[in-house]
């Protein structure tokens, strides 16, 4: 991620591919995958990503507009090339996120795209819930939890809506289908960081 993050060309390549996949997918309904043989070597290596789509909501909230989520799909771990992982997740975010209707062609001009490239998952070791919460770095860590057959993740960007560790943790459990006060010694948790890429970065 560090090398990709320092290269404007590589960041731009990933954004361009994500946009092309979305535009083609919206028109044809089919997934287009880029030719790996023509891609930079670093983008051919295995990598995991999330692709998030936003629309700009024209609400009068002071001097700034508010973004609304329009789709988000991704991979926590991947055994495919990063370029193809981004492509697949861009397609899924636009057309297969079950929370939203598929993106329409007329919407494309109003959509903002955000890529999140994930570091490898790091399992956390803890004695109890308090010990776990002390290890979480607010504003930095993405988290994955798994317990009693339930699992969920929050990207680090969710800290913007849930800035406190306690609220972040409680809402993550709710997302997993667990009660906010749920605890089990069998609960497992992993953390990761992301390299975020937007059009403003390139």
Q: How many separate helices?
A: 6
Low-confidence stretches: 59-63
Q: Averaged pLDDT, please?
A: 92
Name of the top-level CATH class of the largest domain: Alpha Beta
User: In what range is the share of β-strand residues?
Assistant: 25-35%
CATH fold-level name of the largest domain: Glycoprotein, Type 4 Pilin
**Distance between termini?**
15 Å
State the shape.
Answer: globular
Question: Which range best describes the helical content: under 10%, 10-25%, 25-40%, 40-55%, 55-70% or over 70%?
Answer: 25-40%
What is the gyration radius calculated from CA atoms? 18 Å
- Total domain modules: 2
Strand line-up in the sheet with most strands: 2-1-3-8
Number of strands: 8
Largest sheet: 4 strands, antiparallel
- Strand pairing plus helix content: what structural class? alpha+beta
Order of helices and strands: HHHEEHEEHEEHEE
- CATH homologous superfamily label of the largest domain: Hypothetical protein ph0010, domain 1
Q: CATH architecture of the largest domain, please?
A: 2-Layer Sandwich
């Amino acid at each position: 991620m560090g090398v990709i993050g320092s290269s404007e060309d590589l960041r731009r390549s990933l954004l361009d591919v994500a946009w092309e996949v979305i535009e083609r997918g919206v028109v044809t309904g089919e997934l287009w995958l880029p030719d790996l043989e023509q891609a930079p070597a670093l983008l051919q290596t295995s990598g995991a990503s999330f692709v998030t789509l936003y629309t700009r909501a024209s609400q009068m909230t002071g001097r700034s507009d508010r973004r609304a989520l329009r789709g988000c799909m991704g991979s926590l771990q991947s055994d495919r090339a990063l370029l193809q992982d981004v492509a697949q997740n861009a397609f899924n975010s636009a057309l297969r996120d079950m929370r939203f209707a598929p993106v329409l062609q007329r919407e494309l001009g109003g959509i903002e795209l955000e890529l999140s490239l994930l570091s490898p998952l790091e399992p956390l070791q803890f004695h109890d819930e308090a010990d776990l919460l002390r290890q979480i770095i607010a504003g930095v860590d993405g988290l994955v939890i798994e317990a009693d057959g339930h699992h969920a993740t929050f990207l680090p960007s969710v800290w913007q809506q849930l800035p406190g560790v306690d609220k972040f943790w409680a809402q993550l459990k709710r997302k997993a289908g667990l009660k906010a006060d749920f605890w089990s010694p069998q609960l497992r948790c992993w953390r990761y960081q992301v390299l975020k890429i937007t059009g403003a970065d390139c």
